[in-house]
Amino acid sequence: ERPAIAPDIDKFLSELGWREFCRHLLFDHPDLATRNLQPAFDAFPWHSDEAALSAWQRGRTGYPIVDAGMRELWYSGVMHNRVRMVVGSFLVKHLLIDWRLGEQWFWDTLVDADPGSNPGNWQWVAGCGADAAPYFRVFNPLLQSEKFDAGGSYIRRWVPELAGLPDNLIHQPWTATPLELAAAGIELGGNYPRPIVDHKTGRQRALSAYAELRQR
Predict the structure, then answer these.
(1) pTM of the model
(2) Residue 163: CA atoms inside 13 Å, Cβ hemisphere, count?
(3) Is 46 a catalytic residue?
(4) Catalytic residue among 20, 81, 168, 187, which?
(5) Looking at residue 214, what is its pLDDT?
(6) pLDDT value at position 215?
(7) Residues with Cβ within 8 Å of residue 39, at least 6 apart in sequence
(8) Could you give the angle at the alpha carbon of 107 between the alpha carbons of 103 and 111, nearest 5°?
(9) Which of 75, 102, 134, 160 stands 20 to 30 A from 60 (CA)?
(10) Residues 105, 122, 124, 158: which is the catalytic one?
(11) Is 74 known to be catalytic?
C-alpha cells in the first residue's frame, strides 16, 4: 500500500518534469519568450487594451479570484500554480491580450521566474505552445474560484474589501443585492470594480478568435 503522501510526491515530480521539459524547449528555441512556438498563432487577433492590461496587473478586474492572485503576486512575488493558470487564461482569453505581455509582467514580478518555465507555461495557456491541448480551453474563473477557494479565505486575504461577503457571494459580488453589498461595505464601481468583461461574452469572443485562426 502506498503511503498517503505518495500523490503529493508524484505531483512534485511531475512539476519537476515539466520544468525540465521547458528548459529543453528553451534550449531549442532561445526566443521562447518572444515568438510563438506554433507559427500559425502569428496571425492571432490580439487586442491592444492598456486599461484592461493595467486592471489585470493591479488586481482590479472585478473577478475576485483573478484579483486575489494578481495582488498576491504584486505584494509577495509568488502565486499558487492553480491561480497562475486562472489569471493567465483570463488575460489571453477573456481579454485577448497578447501572452507576451503577461509573460513580461510575471518575469518582472515573480521571485521564482524561470527563463524556460515562464514563457513555456504562458505559451501553453495561450494555446500556441507545446502540448497545448485543447488549445482553445477557457478557464471559468467563477468555477475555479468556487472549487479551489470554496470558503473564500484566499480572496478575503488578498481582496479584503470583499471580506464581509458570505461564502456564496464572495466569488461573484455583482450578484449580491444592494442591501447585501451595503452590509458588507462594498460599492461596485467604487471601492471594488465591476467585472471588466462578462464571462460568457469573453469566452465566446475567445472561441470565435480561435475558430477564425483555425480556418486560416
Answers:
(1) 0.92
(2) 6
(3) yes
(4) 81
(5) 81
(6) 79
(7) none
(8) 140
(9) 134
(10) 122
(11) no
